[in-house]
Design a protein that fits this description.
DUF779; globular; five-stranded mixed β-sheet; 3 helices; single chain; Hypothetical Protein Aq_1857, Chain: A; three-stranded mixed β-sheet; alpha/beta; DUF779 domain-containing protein
Length: about 120
Amino acid sequence: MTERLSLTEGAKELIRELVNKHGDLMFYQAGGCCEGTQPQCFEKGGYYPRYNDAMIGLAEGFEFWIDRDLFEYWQYSHFTLDVLQGFGPGGFSLETPLGKTFKVHYRLFTESELADLAPVIRSL
């Protein structure tokens, strides 16, 4: 089965650091401007997905949700969660005080990947 989400080693290391400080996590990527243009990391339960948002996979065991409208646009793309040094456009995400920001790299699935694509989970 083709997974919709993967992580760089840097993202994995940062997630482990955040888990040590905050406990269980969750990720959400909205489709709006500013903060919504990059994935946000919250303590689990710190953000509630909207009706019909899509959970595309797990980031080190933690749910990675995408805004329903953004998912419709990117549904044929693989997401790679990465981390960059520096501050993103805002400060809501847990990595901000560490001087880091999560970023997603996208690429289109190949035809063979699309034929065996992992299903998404939709929020109710």
